[in-house]
Write a structure and sequence with these properties.
single chain, twelve-stranded antiparallel barrel, Porin, disordered N terminus, mainly beta
Amino acid sequence: MKSVLLFSATALALSAVFTSSVMAYDDVTVDTTGGKGFVGIGVIAKPDYEGSDENETRVAPFGRYAWASGRYVNLGGTGGSENAGRLSLNLITTDSSENWTFGPLLQYRLKRDDDVDNQQVKRMKEVDAATELGAFVGFRTGPWSTELSFAGDVSDEHDGYLVYLKGAYKLMQTSKVMVSLGVDTSWADSSYMETYFGVDNKNVGNSGLPFYKPDSGFKDIGLSLTGVYYFNKTWAVGGVASYTRMLNDAEDSPLVEGNQGVGDKNQLSGVVAVLYSF
């Protein structure tokens, strides 16, 4: 287990520090003949913790490489307002299926410490970074795509798991422009919810926040709009604007907008990036 955690932290630490919360760039079309891919770097603005009413700005690298077989590796992030990076590997070849994807994923979730703007959350006990392992399955046909994924903590930090569901529809795809509309939601178990949205004797610190014990359930739902403009076959510029609405026990948390809430149930994120295809 220690070797898994060491590999996980090494593989994703840098990407998770900078990754975007919404990576709809999965829809960027790349010619995979002989193996092709792209890398990008952008500037993002997103909540400084899940449920915060304050945004922070940071740099965001991401990328994708596809082999001629149809297998690919993708580096991006999770949806919503989570601060987590994701590395996923599709194992299904195009000879097996042109529509389905499936494979393992590795996530690295950033810690929540006193480096947040809210003075009460700042005084809570720190939540250390977490490493999560899981899998995904996706289906794509024409302009439609959908993906279901699962990730569980293997670092003994929150000891929970999450289920993600996302879909996308390409509104436009030309040689110069791609526009895509996405929707996503996530479900979290009680261990995850208590770690990131709960308040008790163990984590309250001297924050003054009221005690709160959340239960499992859907914690958010979001919409995103992605646009990419291709200058040529090599260079492009893109952007993502996303809105996430916290739900159920996540919304009612005092860290968000519940009793004496200090955050916001409405979460906004955005990224502007430059892409290089090879």
